[in-house]
Amino acid sequence: MNVLQLLPIVALLFIFYFLLIRPQQKRAKEHQRLVKAIGPGDEIVTIGGLFGVVVEVTDDRVMIEAYDGSQLEFLRSAISRKVNLAPVAEPEDDTTSISDKEDSKSSPASLSAGKDDKELQSDKTPASSASEARESQKG
Question: Rounded to two decimals, what is the model's pTM?
Fold first, then answer.
């Protein structure tokens, strides 16, 4: 075989290594460091999406207290990431945003405020009109 025939195969192997294998290995090492560094008091998210605080750590398991007070036991490998739950500061500006003003314009109360009773009655669904007609015939 000629060396030129092997060159595309070798190039593909290098491309796969640098684009797929190497980044995956870096992510795996990062996750291992994270799992080893977990300790009591850390706020975490599991791979299932459960938020909680680590209460107890053993060799391969962690005890997590969920925010409702229940304690759950997970494998350390089930930890997805650490969470920094910093309190969200409320904006000091108390002016109403443009979207809030638009919402108040299109609310049902403001839309029906300008209608009279006949217009509101014509907005009823056929089902409600039919049930009202049956009630008036019975009574």
Answer: 0.52
The residues facing 73 across adjacent strands are: 63
Sheet holding 79-82, edge to edge: 71-75, 61-66, 51-57, 43-46, 79-82
pLDDT of residue 4: 87
Neighbours of 135 (CB within 10 A): 9
- Amino acid at position 32, single letter: Q
- Report the pLDDT averaged over residues 94-121: 51
Strands 43-46 and 79-82: antiparallel
- Name the 3-class secondary structure at 54: strand
pLDDT reading at 64 higher than 70: yes
At 75, is the secondary structure helix, strand, or coil? strand
